[in-house]
Amino acid sequence: MDDFIDNLPAMDLMRSEKMTFVQLIIPVESAHRAVSYLGELGLLQFRDMNFDKSPFQRTFVNQVKRCAEMSRKLRFFKEQISKAGLIASTRLVMQPDLELEELEIQLAEHEHELNEMNSNSEKLRQSYNELLEFKMVLQKAGGFLVSNKTHSVSEERELDENIYSNDNYIETASLLEQEMRPGRSDQSSLRFISGIICKSKVLRFERMLFRATRGNMLFNQAPADEQIMDPLSTEMVEKMAFVVFFSGEQARTKILKICEAFGASCYPVPEDVTKQRQITREVSSRLVELETTLDAGIRHRNKALTSISFHLAKWMKMVRKEKAVFDTLNMLNFDVTKKCLVGEGWCPIFARTQIQEILQRATFDSSSQVGIIFHEMDATESPPTYFRTNSFTGAFQEIVDAYGVARYQEANPAVFTVITFPFLFAVMFGDWGHGICLLLGALVLIARESKLSTQKLGSMMEMLFGGRYILLLMSLFSIYCGLIYNEFFSVPYHIFGGSAYKCRDATCSDAHTAGLVKFRDPYPFGVDPSWRGSRSELPFLNSLKMKMSILLGVAQMNLGIVISYFNACFFRSSIDIRYQFVPQMIFLNSLFGYLSLLIIIKWCTGSQADLYHVMIYMFLSPTDDLVPWMLFPKPFILKKLHTERFQGRTYGILGTSEMDLDVEPDSARQQHEEFNFSEIFVHQMIHSIEFVLGAVSNTASYLRLWALSLAHSELSTVFYEKVLLLAWGYENFAIRLVGLAVFAFATAFILLMMETLSAFLHALRLHWVEFQNKFYHGDGYKFKPFSFATLAEDED
Predict the structure, then answer these.
(1) Would 523 disulfide with which of 528, 569, 643, 645, CB 3.0-4.6 Å?
(2) SS3 state of residue 471
(3) pLDDT by residue (tens digit) across 692-735?
(4) Domain residue ranges in the chain
């Protein structure tokens, strides 16, 4: 038997790739190029030999900081391009390859140029906003100022009493000086302050003014005609122009402080209409000039950003690669005396030749006089697990890895999950009408695979796209099981011929209730349509699906135990075969294997025997000898083997070989581990008790196949009969349309979404708990090679 198993052809996905622990001794001058080439290959996982050092104590920390700074600048460019509303160019631009130092200089120049343009643009925008606000205040406040020619104080009111809080505005200074008067006749005359404030602050602003002046003021406001852009947030803000009339110097001081606190901008407005018009003309001409300048600056800035966008993707990719290379170099041990870097890691055995060729090419390209040394070593830790998957098998492998990564070289449940997972889902979801709906969705995702794979999808859509092939198989098996159940949106059809039953006589008008007799061979495939609507439909389908669930569960659990046998054969563990596989097979099949046999015999012979009493009598006299068989022998045999293997090795062998002297301090060598008998015994006891109790609970757990299948069928029947048929019984077209809409909504959101998710989760539980715990340890760790292909797009 062992020879037969050894001669079986290897299966890529059945067991993980064979790995080897290697050491690299790389001269300093070729280290960067060698690691970069290894990143392109992506088949070597480096081991961190400086785990005891902080990131700031490593050799290439300065290079990593430089790459991080360049990444920050590139992110700044990307934000500026996005803020400007430009689209990053996908056109290939011929540009010679840059060195990291040259790229660093270019990025610094571009950043300095952009910062200057942004600063100038902000200043111009601020001046433009101030002039625009001043123009609005002149337009709105002029209506509030009623000139009284007979009032003597009006000629003495001077423009300098009105506040102009913006020091940068100089253009209207000449007019202000013209309005100034040398003296005042009455300090308590009526004065006013005009300005503009955000619309959201007007109510609080007015309330505060009223309280501060104790009601001795008049507040007028009017909405501005245009919205003003906030230079910081670049959002359009609504403003309100206002004029506050007051009397007295003390009130003036309070109002100014309140304006400053609320962020209101105050502008001088003369009472003379002629001067208002003159200032308005000057402000308008200045606004036109500033608008032209702003447009020219935006065009120049967009031109610079467009030229950057042509190279942005290439630069970001280059910086990410360089940072990843230096991060990897920091994992190597730097030997100052030998001027080389020493690295260790894992690689698949099939990749050794490729790695050696790449290292030779790196040595040649870097013109190094010393070659890179690449040799295999022994290792104490378990190798990583690496499965070569594709777009089809990758999703099923992710389902298994979500439970736990396979131990090195143990049997991979994903091989069987490819078929068993969608099949058990279909057993619970069986309806070939619903299966066709799922199939259409899966075909759409697969047809648009090349387009969707390059887009950023939402979390839900990304999950559906990643599992498109799982959805495809689930839909195909759902159609298959739906044909067996003979359900198309809960309606049976005579697809494979006529029914095996007919009316007994002419008085049998209702063939669904009574008087049916069998007159020919059984229905060729699936459930006979005549069971639909009969009085015995529910008892028949209950019995059928319950027994079928037990058969499927016992078959899958036996498959798990058989896989544990192949694991034991692969690892040459005869103890697991004798004291684990054999008693487990006998225990499971003595109870539930026998039950499954009785179910098949009952189906074939039509016996009326009661299986419940048979199982009760079997549980009253179980096989008591199997539990000690699983519990006691294995721990004691393991202890005996360990004692014999390490007998006389307490002190070890004194050796002074060159191999012992040249061992690197961080190298992994075989070490003697202590044997903890109590831990082994407790683990074996837990495993034995778990199997014995789990044999019953796991078999009962497979009854969820029956329960969910029945629930799905009954829900579909309720929606069809109580919604669609009930609405179709009316002659009113609107009622029929509403019934059809409700039926479609219930089918799409309840049966196709909620029931799909429910069946998916239950199938997932059956594989993780009931199937995989028979053979799967799942305590390994993934093979994570240094690869540029796996670098995240948003990596810093």
Answers:
(1) 528
(2) helix
(3) 888 888 999 999 999 999 999 999 999 998 888 888 888 888 99
(4) 1-101+302-376, 392-622+683-774
